[in-house]
Write a structure and sequence with these properties.
Blueprint lengths: L1 H15 L9 H11 L9 H25 L6 H11 L5 H13 L3 H12 L13 H47 L5 H28 L7 H5 L6 H12 L5 H7 L4 H23 L8 H33 L1
Amino acid sequence: MIFLSLVVVLAIVYWLGSASFIQFDGWYKWLVNRLQGIPGLSSAPAVPLALALLIPLAVLVILFLLVYQTAGIQWLFFLYVPVLLYSLGRGNLLADVQEYIALSTRGDSVAAAQLLDRLRGHDVIPGDVDVSDWRGLHTEALRVFAYRGFERMFAVLFWFFIAGPFGALIYRLSVLYRDFSPAGSDAAALSNKWLWLLELPAVRLMGVTWAFVGNFETCPLRKNLLDLQNSSDYVLNECLRGALGAHTESLAAAMAEMKPEEKAEKQEEMEEETQDIIEDLTGDVITTHSEPAYSFALVKSSVPLYTRSLLFWVWAIAFATLIV
């Protein structure tokens, strides 16, 4: 049931580009606003958060039991698919990346920065960039796309595989609760902490997956798998950059202790490995080693790496389904 639902949902998203036709969030925004507006609960932000997650979950459990008792287990497929479609992230990552690439190609840094600000969201991915600095824009774009790709697809599929439609729905509602909470409020801060816990195992699995389908040697797994201090977007960015053979903070710290000749040799080796990875993923050849061109190539390579990661787990789940 899990695998069949996953295949059907991925086929629908591939055909339509997104699941926006079923993703209506007005009802949940109304529920969140009503719960957060209850007098006396402002000092206990955990209560509205818990109720906002448990009320829709209870409705889903009731529907699950009704379908199971009246129609049989095979009809649960028609519950799994719409719930998973609704639980997927809002927007289309591929379209966002393509829009950013188009803006970068024609040199519209203001529009590119505005796109990143929209994708960053409030209280989600902190940061700011100088619109005149293309290297900074590309670096920020890779960080934003790393988290948004994870949040929109991989985290949802992770919890769907772990806990079925209940896990997928809880994750999406948690993200929406954060988005619907006032920026800088106690509710937003608490939802960020709750989401960090939900994303903790999925972020590490995402990093391991990138290492397998990308550059395993330069992906800082040992440091980031045990990193319980930094945010999800930081860990994902480090893992994605490492999987693409690019510089990471872990690598920079290690290279700082090297002798000048060793550092130069390592730098040259990494540039060659990164070029091989980028050429393998996109077919592009970096003709200049300028920082903006290098960073832009990393952004273009991120989507093929996501595709490989998704295919990797589709095949893994299919194999596990056949074995079990």
